[in-house]
From TrEMBL:
The record's account of how the chain is modified after translation: C-terminal thiocarboxylation occurs in 2 steps, it is first acyl-adenylated (-COAMP) via the hesA/moeB/thiF part of the MOCS3/UBA4 homolog, then thiocarboxylated (-COSH) via the rhodanese domain of the MOCS3/UBA4 homolog.
Cross-link Glycyl lysine isopeptide (Gly-Lys) (interchain with K-? in acceptor proteins), where in sequence: G100
Lineage of producing organism: Eukaryota, Metazoa, Ecdysozoa, Arthropoda, Crustacea
Broad class of where this protein is predominantly found: cytoplasm
Protein name: Ubiquitin-related modifier 1 homolog
UniProt entry keywords in alphabetical sequence: Cytoplasm, Isopeptide bond, tRNA processing, Ubl conjugation pathway
């Protein structure tokens, strides 16, 4: 069994500004355990988020105004926080919030 789960994280629409202006991250997670979206968000906060976590997370989930896609499907269709990650998944976070 592969000891790592490799997924691609893509931040756009301004969300990348919270991650050191880096849009694309390929990450390897230990696959000895099951990874769900809720657990991934905690990992993202602890390992990738560079500034202003309140602009990305709110109450244990992504804040309103950030669209989340799992393999090009709205995460609401795959179970949101309960979705179990699979190897080679692509998770996209698109901020729809724009300051003026």
């Amino acid at each position: 069994m592969n000891s790592e789960l490799e997924i691609t994280l893509n931040f756009s629409g301004g969300a990348e500004l919270l991650f050191g202006k880096i849009k694309l991250h390929t990450v390897k997670l230990p696959s000895q355990e099951t990874w769900c979206m809720k657990k991934l968000l905690v990992w993202i906060k602890e390992n990738l988020l560079k500034e202003r976590p309140e602009l990305f997370l709110q109450g244990g989930t992504v804040r309103p105004g950030i669209l989340v896609l799992v393999n090009n499907a709205d995460w609401e269709l795959v179970g949101q926080l309960d979705y179990n990650l699979q190897n080679k998944d692509e998770i996209v976070f698109i901020s729809t919030l724009h300051g003026g």
